[in-house]
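RESIDUES AND SHAPES:
===
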Amino acid sequence: MQLPVSAIVVGYNEAHLLKKSLPMLAFCKEILYFDLGSKDDSREVAESMGAQVIIHEKVDSCEWIHAKFANSTKYEWLLITDPDEILSRELIDEISQLFNEPDKLEKIGEITTPWIFYFKNKKLTGTHWGGISRRTLLVHNKRFEFKALIHVGRQVLPGYSTLNIEYTGKNFIHHYWMSGYKKLFEKHLRYLRNEGEARYKTGRRSTLKGIITEPFHAFKYSYKSRQGYKDGFTGLFLSVFWAWYESTAQIKNYTYQRSVEKKLPPTS
């Protein structure tokens, strides 16, 4: 049975991933695939699987697409996913059951689900990304706000709440996060272009002391607290990578806030 849900997928040169992920969205009555100028056959693959293809100029992150088109869909419930994510059958069944009991969704603005990351097709046990994490999968576009801010552009509107689908063993999103080291760096360098502004606009501030100590805190968190050591060399590498990324993001945040402060009128 199809549900009154509009799925939004944003992609670029990911035809091989779409072939696996789009069939699992067949339960949605509308599938919108936003193509950012792919050179492969992504658009043809999406169309062959029943998706409506919308060609869009390239943007640094899908948050820009969500903020722009969230209120232009056929249905008010939106499913936000990526080409590298595959919903399990068990998760789809659980979502379908929720929509069969509409009273449970009357005051719900978002539905979160379990989420498991894979690096080079291997499930991550530890690090910042490993284990059973959680993310927003479904939102109601009249009860939820999207902002064009990297990683922080989503929030439930006042008066509505979050429904969490709890992990039962098989009901999760398979997130085939990174196929290799090159993609890891390419994607995160793109994120860093916007991290400073996004963090500043959501109230985060950086200090020189924080920038100096961040590499140690971030590495300890990923490798020790999040048990990155369980993933062997991959866990060590990703923990070092996380320390580099968070430290660089803090520098970006500090640089952005200094540029803003310079434009402020002097205080008397």
Remarks:
- Residues 180-263 form one domain.
